[in-house]
Design brief:
about 525 residues, alpha/beta, seven-stranded mixed β-sheet, 20 helices, about 15% strand
């Protein structure tokens, strides 16, 4: 088993905002975190030097850093790994000692532990010591060690941009701008710009976003709202909580979005809104939906909770309906550190009503035009989302790359049905969902091999106990009913490596090879 000591430069990369400059250091820390920091050491001689370097760099204004924060991060880091005592003797005749005493002391420390390498990006250190390896060499040594793949790993994502997130949170705390404030104002504008709408209104969560949107579309008792049969219950309960009647429509097989060919048959004189859900990050077929809505004078509320950044025929998801709702649940493509959501629209009147509804029915404090509710996106969550939003395009691209690897690796297995995409759309693959008859057996086998999976969702909405009163049968929604027992979500998140995806594919092939 290999042991490793990290040199000071790499540790400083972690403690200060240098990951963008030294990307491999970030990848190294993500890898070591996945290994739970096993067999990773720091020499006792390094600790004082690290403190000195932090003070020096701060004094030189090299980095925009908070020393107290860096020190707390250093303490946390040292608690994760082991400290090896640096020997007290020094050989002043040693070539490395004469070149760099700090490197020499690290090498002395490494020699006290068997089979230990020093990971560094210092070219001189690499040249002058036969115990050193580069970050690239480390990955070559460790590349075969994958035995576990989480369904999602939020901590790895945090590590990759922790300086930006912590700086934004610190700013909110310093200014005590917990409700409202600059972070929220900035995020509303930034997210509107990202989606391509005139307005974005941050709210407490994605369910609130749906409920408020339906309210401003004036859904009330007796009104009917068309909802896909396969979605999370937030989509349908938002209708019921506004007094409306849920009318389910079956989904397309393999695409999973609402089957537009079945919408018109469900429209009555009481129908008011259609809610297309951009399910699993794949856009619904919006052009026919828009055509139907215009024909029957209906409103469109896009449920984009899983589709941040998805594109339909050149248009961003969230820009095609009258209004759209987003969720920033932590595991979403753009996730907060708790519940959060947003409403987007280009309509001045709808935007104003949303703002008022979310703020107890008023715009100014203690001046209430009507009874509303309290649904706030707080300052800390807005600050976190601001930091993450900058990275969302590359994260979505990483998800597409992972999806392509799954498709390439699993395409030859006839037992598996892979997800399809509507022509001229760009999915953001919030989830990668396959269909298999042996769903439960495969999920168990993958779990036994350290791979986490999910089911989204095990019970279609019409068959939930909450909608038992509608008396639906399996013949009413045959695709949704069939897929309940077949769909399986595979791990997918931006920080997954190609090796991790290949490990999942390998185990799925192994499962079918056993049969």
């Amino acid at each position: 088993m290999n042991n490793y000591i990290l040199d000071n430069q790499i540790i400083i990369d972690f403690l200060t905002p240098r990951f963008d400059e030294f990307k491999n250091s970030e990848n190294l820390f993500i890898c070591l975190k996945r290994k739970h920091w096993n067999n990773v050491f720091v020499a006792s001689s390094q600790i004082d030097n690290l403190l000195y370097v932090l003070f020096r760099e701060k004094k030189r204004n090299r980095f925009d850093i908070n020393l107290n924060y860096c020190f707390s991060l250093l303490r946390e880091f040292i608690n994760l790994i082991d400290i090896v005592k640096t020997p007290s003797y020094i050989d002043f005749e040693n070539n490395l000692c004469s070149n760099d005493i700090e490197d020499y002391l690290i090498e002395l420390s490494a020699k006290t532990i068997s089979n230990t390498k020093i990971i560094t990006r210092d070219k001189k250190f690499l040249k002058n010591s036969n115990l050193t390896i580069s970050i690239e060499q480390f990955f070559e040594i460790e590349k075969e060690a994958i035995t576990k793949v989480d369904f999602v790993d939020l901590k790895v994502q945090y590590i990759s941009i922790h300086q930006e997130i912590d700086k934004n949170i610190d700013e909110v705390i310093k200014n005590t701008a917990f409700i409202g404030g600059k972070a929220l104002k900035d995020f509303n504008q930034n997210f509107a710009d990202f989606i391509g709408t005139k307005y974005a209104i941050g709210v407490g969560n994605g369910t609130d976003a749906l409920e408020i949107a339906l309210k401003v579309l004036e859904v009330e008792a007796g009104d009917e709202v068309i909802v896909p049969a396969n979605s999370f219950i937030a989509t349908s309960e938002a209708v019921k909580n506004n007094g409306g009647k849920v009318v389910f429509v079956d989904c397309l097989d393999e695409y999973y979005s609402i089957d537009v060919s079945k919408i018109e048959a469900k429209i009555t004189s009481k129908t008011k809104v259609i809610i297309p859900v951009h399910f699993y990050g794949q856009p619904a077929d919006m052009n026919p939906i828009i055509k139907i809505a215009k024909k029957y004078n209906l409103k469109i509320l896009e449920d984009a909770a899983q589709a941040h950044g998805a594109v339909y025929k050149g248009r961003n998801i969230g820009t095609m309906g009258d209004i759209a709702a987003f969720s920033f649940f932590p595991s979403k493509n753009l996730g907060a550190f708790g519940d959060a959501g947003a409403i987007v629209t280009n309509d001045d009147i709808l935007a104003k009503k949303c703002k008022m509804l979310a703020k107890h029915g008023g715009i100014n404090k203690y001046n209430h035009k009507f009874e509303g509710r309290n649904s706030r996106l707080d300052g800390i969550q807005a600050a976190i989302l601001n930091a993450k939003l900058i990275h969302l395009p590359k994260w979505n691209e990483a998800r597409r790359r992972i999806a392509e690897l799954y498709e390439k690796g699993l395409s030859q297995l006839n037992e598996i049905v892979l997800p399809k995409q509507i022509d001229e759309t760009i999915s953001v693959f919030h989830l990668f969902v396959i269909q298999i008859y042996e769903r439960n057996q495969l999920a168990t086998y993958l779990k036994e091999n350290g791979i986490s999976t999910g089911i989204h969702y095990p019970i279609g909405l019409p068959y939930q106990e909450a909608y038992k009163y509608l008396n639906h049968t399996k013949e009413d929604f045959p695709i949704t009913y069939k897929n309940q027992d077949k769909i399986l979500s595979l791990p997918i998140y931006p920080e997954m490596t190609d090796e991790m995806v290949c490990y999942v594919v390998e185990k799925i092939k192994e499962f079918y090879g056993r049969k």
